[in-house]
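Subject: design request, 259 residues
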């Protein structure tokens, strides 16, 4: 499996499909396999060259245990290191949850590397992650089964394969990942690339996501009635059509991106 080297941190990625380059960046506790399991790769692979990335601390990428390693600018350079490794100057980017936070980071730190941004279930405002850190600590003391049970109580049922990955995760790395986030909303008005922002209407962060979309010039926003945070990723059939329409319109008139 291929890896990109970002200042000594090895970032696993996979490339699937053909067409314009589209980076897929998963959320906290996930890995690139989730894009396969939830049907995104099957739906997108005939139209896009998909570049799937395991975020640091997740999947088969390296998992440092210090908080400094998970500063937003370092996570952004993980993505650009993967783009460099596959020879792509500019790509579309789709990130969900933590992946969406990284997307906002790209808009701040490396806007020249993206043709458009799709951000689901994420916002750029300050965020206290204490509850997530406590969940991870409870898993460290209580074990994998307790971790999965608590996760399902928060997020709803998860697949057996997802649960297996949660049980075997590097929880010290996850503890370092789950640091409080500082707000970067000051750059919303300068986000000139085409943007599509979406969120489940039952997601507790719905209001913040909508406020972020309202602050981006000409951003396209849609919501998913009745869906909680994790459901808005897992139930891909509700998401793919509007996002694919956005990506098609965002590409019109552009030079080819990352073929």
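Subject: RE: design request

Done. Sequence follows.
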């Amino acid at each position: 499996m291929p890896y990109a080297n970002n200042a000594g941190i090895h970032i696993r990625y996979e490339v699937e499909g053909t067409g314009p380059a589209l980076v897929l960046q998963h959320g906290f506790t996930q890995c690139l396999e989730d894009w396969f399991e939830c049907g995104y790769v099957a739906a997108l692979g005939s139209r896009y060259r998909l570049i799937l990335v395991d975020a640091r601390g997740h999947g088969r990428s390296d998992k440092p245990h210090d908080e400094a390693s998970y500063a937003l600018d370092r996570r952004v350079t993980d993505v650009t290191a993967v783009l460099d490794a596959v020879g792509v100057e500019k790509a579309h980017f789709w990130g969900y949850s933590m992946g969406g936070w990284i997307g906002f980071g790209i808009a701040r730190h490396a806007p020249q590397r993206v043709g458009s941004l799709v951000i689901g279930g994420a916002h750029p405002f300050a965020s206290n992650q204490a509850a997530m850190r406590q969940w991870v600590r409870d898993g460290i003391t209580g074990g994998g089964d307790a971790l999965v049970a608590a996760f399902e109580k928060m997020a709803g049922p998860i697949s057996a394969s997802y649960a297996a990955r949660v049980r075997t995760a590097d929880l010290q790395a996850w503890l370092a990942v789950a640091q409080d986030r500082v707000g970067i909303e000051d750059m919303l008005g300068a986000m000139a690339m085409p943007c599509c922002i979406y969120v489940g209407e039952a997601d507790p962060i719905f209001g913040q996501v909508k406020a972020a979309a309202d602050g981006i010039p000409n951003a396209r926003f849609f919501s998913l009635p009745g869906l909680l945070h994790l459901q808005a990723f897992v139930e891909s059939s509700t998401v793919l059509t509007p996002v694919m329409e956005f990506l098609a319109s965002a590409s019109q008139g552009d030079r080819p991106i990352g073929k």
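The two ends are 21 Å apart (CA to CA).
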